[in-house]
Design the sequence.
């Protein structure tokens, strides 16, 4: 177990800045997930912590010791790669024991550690097989086993589940969660999958274009996103964004409206907004409730309905031409073209300053 | 409409394929069969048979006389031994040195490595004949400390036939291309586990390099076994002479084609044996590295 801290960490490849000054603190035993779209720098950041990429500027400390110039093996980390990176010419046992063998760990001790890892990951029966005889999930277990036996201070996972099919991904996700509970080690996990981020993390770091957008617990980020990007990135279906005009500002609340919506008061949280200016109202699809057209805060017509059994996703075309999505927690038939009203609790809506770059880059 | 292949159709295709393959095999085998068959015939019959298909058949006056005569004319065993020794040692050292060089080019970071690799690859277009004389002069004046003390000049030795041929652009290039295709994460995983560069080379990269080792070994073996110009220049003593230079013995004074064929048949055996062995190793290594994901 260990604390990890990144202080104003930067990374440039030639003239291109990939990580543009990142500060993150990871507590002892914490499970931290770096999440963001492709190219946001999350894997690069992980590789910098691992020592596989140089740190151009800033400090990386593990347990208070500066690690910038240390070799990967001297950082007390173990890493699980997206492609598993298990050695195809070695058996599972040799793969798991690789680090112990080359570091000349006494044979009895190494064998005990390998056996323990095999027990934890329930792969005792696979130990003498070659990787080519294993399924994707089994290979990932081997990669995790190889990390466990080294007894690292920090586990690093680089999109470990993205090569697995959906069902297996869920199983392995749960296993990784259990592993964290049983080992209690600090873990840093990179993914572009928000479900993995939400379910596994004690703390999520949302990255975009090499910058930290927000750090917090999954529920903090879900219920109180700091900006449009985080609001749109987390949650499925994505948060609805409605362009609004500010008509009044009070100390806590702002009054907003648009052609398809009655004026409502929402918390502005001190964001850079001004009366007469534009803003973006964010409402999660789960918080939009269908009502009779006359009772709705938003008015429009049903454009498309997706029935998922326990949930129905409805796309509504508003009067001003914008589309919003409502996710109803029931099976419901709504014919396209039906006039519909939508209500929501203003306390569950978020008001953001309009930022086209953040809004576009969400997906 | 779906394209379907009827059993009849596929049988016909198979027949055509085998016929074409057999024809190609026959074309490649003709010279070898002619060589071996002729090695059992006296010169008069050998020359007479060349006008007909009898040239490829072991008919007429068949005997081992040519073999006996070849052994009497030249120390065949010594020449084969020299060639096998020089070739074997060069192949082994070349695989080691060139794979190490390629490992450094691909997996280690150092200034100028791209430029140096480009220069090494560029040497592929330099014909050996253009550097033969300067190389001879260098070899003639190189110092050496061996079991019998310090001496100047490498001529008339095994080392002069081996050392200049260990490192070459083609072999390095083959290894570089192969190493580039190995998954980078395997190397990074080993590094994270604490493996040194030497450990990564020995325990990760080389065990996965079977196909390129086999390819490089076969190419190098053929180049070395067929060496003629260089040993002709640097070896005057019979005791260090390789097989190709030994062929000269059969073109002096009374030329005997039957003996030449017998000599050629004998010196071809190590090549075929090596090739067959490497082919099996090659296929085995491909099978063992066919791991995806």
Sequence:
């Amino acid at each position: 177990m260990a604390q990890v801290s990144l202080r104003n960490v930067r990374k440039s490849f030639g003239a291109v800045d990939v990580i543009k000054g990142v500060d993150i603190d990871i507590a002892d035993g914490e499970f931290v997930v770096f999440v963001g779209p492709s190219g946001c720098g999350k894997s690069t950041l992980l590789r910098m912590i691992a020592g596989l990429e140089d740190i151009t500027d800033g400090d990386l400390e593990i347990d208070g010791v500066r690690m910038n110039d240390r070799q990967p093996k001297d950082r007390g980390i173990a890493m699980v790669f997206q492609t598993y990176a298990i050695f195809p010419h070695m058996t599972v046992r040799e793969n798991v024991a690789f680090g112990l063998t080359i570091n000349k760990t006494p044979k009895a001790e190494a064998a005990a550690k390998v056996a323990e890892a095999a027990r934890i990951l329930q792969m005792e029966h696979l130990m003498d097989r070659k990787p080519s005889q294993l399924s994707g999930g089994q290979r990932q277990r081997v990669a995790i086993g190889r990390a466990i036996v080294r007894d690292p201070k920090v586990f690093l996972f680089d999109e470990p589940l993205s090569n697995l099919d959906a069902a297996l991904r869920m199983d392995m996700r749960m296993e990784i969660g259990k592993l964290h509970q049983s080992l209690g080690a600090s873990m840093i996990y990179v993914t572009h999958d928000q479900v993995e981020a939400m379910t596994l993390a004690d703390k999520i770091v949302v990255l975009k274009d090499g910058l930290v957008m927000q750090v917090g617990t999954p529920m903090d980020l879900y219920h109180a996103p700091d900006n449009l990007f985080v609001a749109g990135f987390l949650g499925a279906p994505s948060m609805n964004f409605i362009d609004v005009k500010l008509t009044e500002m009070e100390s806590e609340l702002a009054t907003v409206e648009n052609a398809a919506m009655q004026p409502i008061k929402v918390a502005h949280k001190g964001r850079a907004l001004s009366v007469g200016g534009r803003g973006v109202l964010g409402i999660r699809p789960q918080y939009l409730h269908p009502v009779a057209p006359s009772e709705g805060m938003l008015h429009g017509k049903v454009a498309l309905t997706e029935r998922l059994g326990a949930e129905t996703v409805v796309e509504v075309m508003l009067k001003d031409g914008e589309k919003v999505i409502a996710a109803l927690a029931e099976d419901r038939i709504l014919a396209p073209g039906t006039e519909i009203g939508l209500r929501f609790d203003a306390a569950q809506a978020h008001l953001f300053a309009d930022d086209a770059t953040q809004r576009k880059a969400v997906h | 409409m779906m394209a379907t292949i009827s059993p009849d159709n596929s049988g016909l295709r198979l027949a055509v394929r085998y016929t074409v393959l057999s024809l190609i095999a026959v074309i490649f085998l003709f010279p070898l069969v002619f060589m071996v068959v002729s090695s059992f015939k006296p010169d008069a019959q050998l020359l007479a048979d060349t006008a007909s298909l009898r040239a490829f058949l072991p008919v007429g006056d068949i005997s081992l006389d040519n073999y006996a005569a070849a052994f009497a004319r030249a120390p065949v065993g010594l020449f084969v031994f020299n060639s096998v020794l020089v070739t074997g040692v060069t192949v082994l050292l070349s695989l080691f040195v060139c794979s190490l060089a390629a490992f450094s080019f691909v997996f280690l970071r150092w200034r100028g490595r791209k430029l140096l690799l480009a220069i090494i690859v560029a040497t592929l277009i330099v014909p050996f004949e253009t550097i033969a004389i300067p190389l001879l002069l260098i070899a003639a004046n190189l110092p050496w400390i061996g079991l019998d003390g310090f001496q100047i000049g490498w001529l008339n030795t095994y080392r002069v036939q081996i050392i200049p041929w260990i490192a070459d652009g083609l072999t390095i290039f083959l290894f570089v291309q192969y190493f580039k295709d190995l998954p980078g994460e395997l190397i990074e995983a080993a590094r994270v586990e604490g493996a040194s560069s030497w450990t990564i080379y020995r325990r990760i990269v080389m065990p996965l390099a079977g196909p390129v080792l086999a390819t490089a070994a076969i190419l190098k073996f053929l180049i070395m076994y067929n060496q003629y110009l260089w040993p002709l220049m640097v070896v005057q003593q019979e005791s260090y002479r390789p097989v190709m230079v030994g062929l000269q013995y059969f073109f002096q004074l009374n030329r005997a084609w039957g003996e030449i064929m017998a000599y050629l048949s004998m010196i071809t055996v190590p090549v075929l044996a090596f090739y067959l062995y490497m082919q099996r190793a090659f296929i085995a290594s491909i099978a063992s590295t066919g791991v995806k994901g």
